Amino acid sequence: MIAGIYNITCEQGVDFSRSCILKYPDSSDPTGSTYLLYDFTGYTARMQVRRTLESATPEIELTTANGGIVLGGTAGTFEIVMTSTQTAALDSDGVYDLEIVSGGGVVSRVIQGTFTLDLEVTH
Asked: Would you give the distance in Å from CA 4 to the centre of its chain?
């Protein structure tokens, strides 16, 4: 799977949520116009935001274990979630990627891109 590019803008100090549906071409359709939903049953997911690709420490790490990523099972959905406290603690733009991990340990990068932080004025 080749990761899609999705550049995120996040407002500092507010609750953040982005939902996506992941589909793939139906190989039994010769026209290529039919898509099927991914089944995330048994999968976990992880995402890190870093100031640069070379940064040693993530600004934030979101996972299915910490509630920062919610997988929708057979619906093929995933949701990225951050609380207002988490976004308030962010202080710079960066880059990110989101990976899914199958129950068998196969890792696939789903999306990646820039992470733009829209700074908060009111605290």
From this structure: 11
